[in-house]
Specification:
single chain; 520 residues; alpha/beta; Immunoglobulin-like; TIM Barrel; nine-stranded mixed β-sheet; eight-stranded parallel β-barrel; 9 helices; 25% strand
């Protein structure tokens, strides 16, 4: 009896131990639905791009072949690269080219207007961009030349002589002279110089981050002064035969700055003279979009990078959600397009010599004994370091992949359409947006900012084309994550009206490209 009882206890203990050792059932991936709504439309997308101002263009021109061509492909090729469609140019105001200054074509008040047909290397880059089909160039002045300003210099802020209220500045050097119309004519001639070289400027801006006083080209302005300058520039452009060139304003440092200066421009009655509202998303209350700006004019985010956080460039897609990581960059693009209703997203530096600036592509200067002072200058053939065989003199940062994956598939002219996320209970890490382009199909961008893989069911309605009903759709899936970099991971076939199961990996940007309309 005792033995029977002992055996029974041992068996019970073994069973309990076995139960403890058995692994728990695998947690089921969260399931969501993505329902496209082509009847709900938002803004038209103008494109994505970057800037090469302040002599950063030399970081491209300095590269020897074949790497220079590889970098150009990474930037502009619509099949193998990002296919960027916007280039932001810097219009010079400095009296010289020391350091990374952008030299003015008219550095003296009584001197001639003499453009050097290089513009700190930007003309060459723009010409290369045109070879790839780029047509959208926005030219921005950070400041007027110093002789036009209250402080007598193009840096350290200061106000344009003659604008209302410029007398607030101490030590004014204006001496009662207004340079408002002269500055407008200076910019118009600058734009004409580009046009004469075969590069059409779509929009021109006359100020950058007008709340700042910095030891580089800066000029202060409020919205009322910006309105005054807008009217003057409109007259100057028409007078020189360029009435179709749009005027953009005002490159505010963050979303709240753009909102405030826009309200003053509207109050002054100048909004209708603008073609674009331009803003950055560095600082402000808020710095990034919390809702669309109060305007019917297209809004562009024209500058952003992790430079304010002093983080430098990284190739890491996700580690802890820092501003220099690709995943957060993708989220920032999503917020600009969806929350801010922005029509374009332009990164700060496309290719740069300093990794501290977190450019898309870091291409260190190949000169021997390079110093900070001459880092940005064009190279000569006598002092260039020979690149060892088997190496490449550039590095691609993770922010490049985020912008590239939006730019390659969301082409200029695409329309943002509605997309609803359903089926989520406690998993809230999914962001989605959708875009429709007659020439490219329908594009769905999905960001998974969580640590779980997700199964999604993507609906494919007729996408606004009744002829597509009963026909097949091709569904391509492209992914960027910790391992993949803009990689095609799957091609499938589906039909309008069918929910197609797709996989979304953790901490990733997934792009689903739908092309419908051919018979099965």
């Amino acid at each position: 009896m005792y033995l029977h009882h002992l055996v029974r206890l041992i068996l019970i203990g073994l069973a309990a131990a076995t139960a403890r050792r058995q692994p728990a059932p695998a947690e089921r991936n969260p399931h969501i639905t993505l329902t496209l709504d082509p009847t709900t439309t938002f803004q038209t997308i103008d494109g994505f791009g970057f800037c090469e101002a302040f002599q950063r263009a030399h970081s491209i021109t300095n590269l020897p072949s074949p790497w220079r061509e590889e970098v150009l492909d990474l930037l502009f090729n619509t099949t193998t690269g990002a296919g960027f469609s916007i280039v932001r140019l810097g219009l010079g105001s400095s009296p010289d080219s020391r350091g990374d200054h952008m030299n003015s074509p008219q550095p003296n008040a009584d001197g001639p207007f003499a453009w050097d047909r290089k513009d700190s290397g930007q003309l060459w880059v723009a010409k290369q961009a045109q070879r790839y089909g780029v047509e959208n160039f926005i030219a921005d002045a950070w400041s007027a030349p110093g002789y036009m300003k209250t402080n007598g210099r193009d840096d350290m802020g200061g106000w344009l002589c003659g604008v209302k209220g410029e007398g607030r500045a101490e030590g004014t050097e204006c001496k009662g002279v207004s340079w408002v119309q002269a500055y407008a004519e200076y910019l118009a001639r600058y734009v004409l110089a580009w046009v004469d070289e075969g590069v059409s400027i779509a929009h021109v801006g006359f100020v950058n981050e007008p709340n700042l006083i910095k030891p580089y080209a800066t000029m202060q302005s409020d919205g009322y002064q910006a309105a005054e300058q807008t009217f003057a520039l409109s007259v100057a452009l028409a007078g020189i035969g360029l009435p179709s060139v749009g005027i953009s304003c005002c490159e505010g440092q963050g979303w709240s700055y753009a909102r405030d200066i826009l309200a003053e421009i509207q109050d002054a009655g100048a909004e209708g003279a603008l073609s674009l509202i331009t803003t950055h998303t560095y600082k402000g209350l808020p710095a990034k979009p919390d809702k669309p700006l109060n305007t019917t004019i297209p809004v562009w985010v024209t500058e952003i990078s992790p430079i304010m956080d002093r983080l430098g460039m990284t190739q890491t897609w996700y580690r802890n959600g820092s501003e220099n990581e690709g995943l957060l960059s993708a989220i920032n693009i999503h917020e600009a397009l969806v929350t801010g209703n922005a029509s374009a997203y332009v990164y700060w530096i496309g290719v740069g010599q300093s990794s501290a600036e977190a450019p898309f592509i870091w291409a260190p200067n190949l000169k021997k004994n390079v110093t900070y002072a001459n880092m940005w200058w064009p190279n000569d053939n006598d002092t260039v370091i020979e690149v060892p065989a088997g190496t490449v003199p550039y590095t691609i940062g993770s922010t490049y992949w985020a912008s590239a994956q939006f730019s390659r598939f969301i082409r200029p002219g695409a329309k943002r359409i509605g997309v609803r996320i359903g089926g989520i209970s406690n998993y809230t890490a999914i962001l989605a947006s959708a875009y429709q382009d007659k020439g490219f199909g329908t594009v769905v961008q999905v960001i998974n900012n969580g640590d779980q893989n997700v199964t999604a069911y993507l609906s494919t309605p007729n996408l606004g084309d009744p002829a597509a009903v009963g026909r097949k759709c091709r569904l391509d899936t492209w992914v960027t994550d910790d391992v993949k970099k803009l990689e095609l991971v799957n091609t499938a076939t589906t039909s309008p009206g069918i929910e197609k199961e797709v996989a979304i990996s953790r901490r990733s940007l997934s792009t689903f490209v739908l092309k419908c309309g051919w018979k099965a």
